[in-house]
Amino acid sequence: MSTPSPKGRLTRDEVAHLAHLSRLACSDEELELFAGQLAAVLDAVAQVGKADVADVAPTTHAVPMTNVMRPDVARPSLPRDAVLAGAPAAEDDRFRVPRILGEEA
Amino acid sequence: MSTDTLVDFDELLTRYEPVIGLETHVELGTASKMFCGCSTTFGAEPNTQTCPVCLGLPGSLPAANEAAIEATIRIGLALGCRIATWSRFARKNYFYPDIPKGFQTSQYDEPLCTAGHLDVEVDGEIYRVEIERVHLEEDTGKNLHVGGSTGRIHGADHSLVDYNRAGIPLVEIVTRPVPGAGAKAPEVARAYVTELREILLALGVSEVRMEQGNLRCDVNTSLAPTGSLEWGTRTETKNVNSLRSVERSVRFEMRRQAAVLDAGERVVQETRHFHEDTGSTSPGRSKEEATDYRYFPEPDLVPIAPDEEWVEKLRVALPELPAARRVRLQQEWGISPTEMAWLVNAGAVELVSDTVAAGASPGDARKWWLGDLARRANDAGTDLGELAISPAQVAELIGLVSAGTINDQLARQALDGVLAGEGDPAAVVEARGLAVMGESDELVAAVDAAIEGNPDVAEKVRGGKVQAIGALVGAVMKTTRGKADAATVKRMLEERLVSS
């Protein structure tokens, strides 16, 4: 991963890297535009950091629950026709996707 | 395929020290998937075992499979791991068509189990393999590459995806680097996977059939100059799908990397693919980009917090583990530690045990599995357990020999038939007409013909040189194509030639 810029300001290179990871083709103009827009979003979110949370324990959930599990019981799946109806393309009862790039075997 | 320069294995050991490491993925044998109720049955029609959760449709929510979590904790306990009191799932983000959600639900910095170990024995020496972590994640879908001549990615013009496998619970067991194995590194790697497989079988958490992909290994290998304080750059070999291949892949990588280092070049840190046919590896996807997974805690699943009571309940219910079981079986079968080690290295302990349970004597069971069957597995380039014969069938074969229906030579022919899918041993013996000849007219004729055809030998026997009778027995066995019983033939010859 490219290194974060000083002061945590999002750089154009970082946006280009994220766009690549997300398989999004962005023009140079768009990278500039998005870098500015995303930086503004991050700045807005960063305001949360101003809150005094010294005596609040970190959490990732709104509810203090653990060990929510389901029993290991198989249930009917969706009909294949319904499943493939949502695919952009299908062939031989499978999802048809473009050639996978960037890998050789 | 391979144009790599390779250094002789023994020679490289005079200059280099290997370090190995293994990442093993185990598909659990649960009835349903990790986060949804879809069935996990192997071999179902494509895309018939999917639902909104495992297809990653918007708005669907996962629910963790209790049996999969318990199986992971049990694996951790069997490997002497510390079981976390607080564990979370995390999203591993990457784009690839086999992962419909755009991320794999996995575990990152809070795995269920950490810091265990597994001791493996090679040639009477114990090697401790430290376990870094055992975590739980979900399997991916299966890609079929279309358009290329070989079904491989290169040259394919599109891919077809089956999501039946997507979401099946997958446990990843990661070792710490294992230095110090030297020349034994390839065998230690194999022994580790063999022992791990035995443990998983004993726990009953997976079918662990490598040919079905229940157990998949990524093997890391690096070389450093002997005495060096730093380890070399490692490669990660994927697609290593048999015990034999684990050993071969380490051996190949050591020989290839030695040649790279000898040439003054640097080993590239990369993923490599193992090729069963040539025993070689070739470069795969570059690791540079792929490691940026942007993990973050999975917000749709709450943490798993195994308390002491739960963990203890699982611990006391653990079955007898393979190491303890081997000590017990070794005593029951009356064999030496070395003989037991042969069985372990051949992956034959459970096969022999099952054969004994099906009625064979331990001695006979060992003889067949380590003898003819091991030879055939070796010739076919497969593992012993993958031969098309069950322990019950081997026991049946042994029973036919014990009962005198067939002798060892005929039993080998019966074995051919069983392995060729002609049915159980008794049926093959019947169909192929393999039963030992009784004292029939045909046998009497063969015995008489042997005496007539070899008058010199017959005379020697009559004159008291009893050991010469072997040549006559051989002649009878030849005419009857091995179907006669040698002891019976010898007695019949003696009746005719030796005056009592």
From TrEMBL, chain A:
Q: Has keyword Ligase?
A: yes
Superkingdom of the source species: Bacteria
* Molecular functions (GO terms): asparaginyl-tRNA synthase (glutamine-hydrolyzing) activity; ATP binding; glutaminyl-tRNA synthase (glutamine-hydrolyzing) activity; transferase activity
Functional note: Allows the formation of correctly charged Asn-tRNA(Asn) or Gln-tRNA(Gln) through the transamidation of misacylated Asp-tRNA(Asn) or Glu-tRNA(Gln) in organisms which lack either or both of asparaginyl-tRNA or glutaminyl-tRNA synthetases. The reaction takes place in the presence of glutamine and ATP through an activated phospho-Asp-tRNA(Asn) or phospho-Glu-tRNA(Gln).
Q: What class of enzyme is it?
A: ligase
Q: Which reaction does it catalyse?
A: L-glutamyl-tRNA(Gln) + L-glutamine + ATP + H2O = L-glutaminyl-tRNA(Gln) + L-glutamate + ADP + phosphate + H(+); L-aspartyl-tRNA(Asn) + L-glutamine + ATP + H2O = L-asparaginyl-tRNA(Asn) + L-glutamate + ADP + phosphate + 2 H(+)
Pfam families linked to this entry: GatC (PF02686)
**What protein am I looking at?**
Aspartyl/glutamyl-tRNA(Asn/Gln) amidotransferase subunit C
Q: Which gene encodes it?
A: gatC
Q: Which family does the record claim for this protein?
A: Belongs to the GatC family.
Segments passing through the bilayer: none
UniProtKB/TrEMBL annotation, chain B:
Q: Which reaction does it catalyse?
A: L-aspartyl-tRNA(Asn) + L-glutamine + ATP + H2O = L-asparaginyl-tRNA(Asn) + L-glutamate + ADP + phosphate + 2 H(+); L-glutamyl-tRNA(Gln) + L-glutamine + ATP + H2O = L-glutaminyl-tRNA(Gln) + L-glutamate + ADP + phosphate + H(+)
Looking up InterPro entries in the UniProt record yields: Asn/Gln-tRNA_amidoTrfase_suB/E, Asn/Gln-tRNA_Trfase_suB/E_cat, Asn/Gln_amidotransferase, Asn/Gln_tRNA_amidoTrase-B-like, GatB, GatB_Yqey_C_2, Gln-tRNA_amidoTrfase_suB_CS, Gln_synth/guanido_kin_cat_dom
A Pfam family name for this chain? GatB_Yqey
List GO BP terms, alphabetically: glutaminyl-tRNAGln biosynthesis via transamidation; translation
Q: What class of enzyme is it?
A: ligase
List the residue ranges of the region (Disordered). Answer: 271-290
SUPFAM superfamilies of this UniProt entry?
Answer: GatB/YqeY motif (SSF89095), Glutamine synthetase/guanido kinase (SSF55931)
Return one GO MF term.
ATP binding
Query: Which keywords belong to this entry?
Result: ATP-binding, Ligase, Nucleotide-binding, Protein biosynthesis, Transferase
EC number per UniProt: 6.3.5.-
Q: The Asn/Gln amidotransferase domain covers which part of the protein?
A: 350-497
Which NCBIfam families has this protein been placed in? gatB, PRK05477.1-2, PRK05477.1-3, PRK05477.1-4
HAMAP family, alphabetized: GatB
Q: What does this protein do?
A: Allows the formation of correctly charged Asn-tRNA(Asn) or Gln-tRNA(Gln) through the transamidation of misacylated Asp-tRNA(Asn) or Glu-tRNA(Gln) in organisms which lack either or both of asparaginyl-tRNA or glutaminyl-tRNA synthetases. The reaction takes place in the presence of glutamine and ATP through an activated phospho-Asp-tRNA(Asn) or phospho-Glu-tRNA(Gln).
Family (UniProt): Belongs to the GatB/GatE family. GatB subfamily.
Q: How does it assemble?
A: Heterotrimer of A, B and C subunits.
Q: Give the PANTHER family listed for this entry.
A: GLUTAMYL-TRNA GLN AMIDOTRANSFERASE SUBUNIT B MITOCHONDRIAL AND PROKARYOTIC PET112-RELATED, GLUTAMYL-TRNA(GLN) AMIDOTRANSFERASE SUBUNIT B, MITOCHONDRIAL
In its UniProt entry, what is this protein called? Aspartyl/glutamyl-tRNA(Asn/Gln) amidotransferase subunit B
Biological source species: Blastococcus xanthinilyticus
Native organism taxonomy: Bacteria, Bacillati, Actinomycetota, Actinomycetes, Geodermatophilales
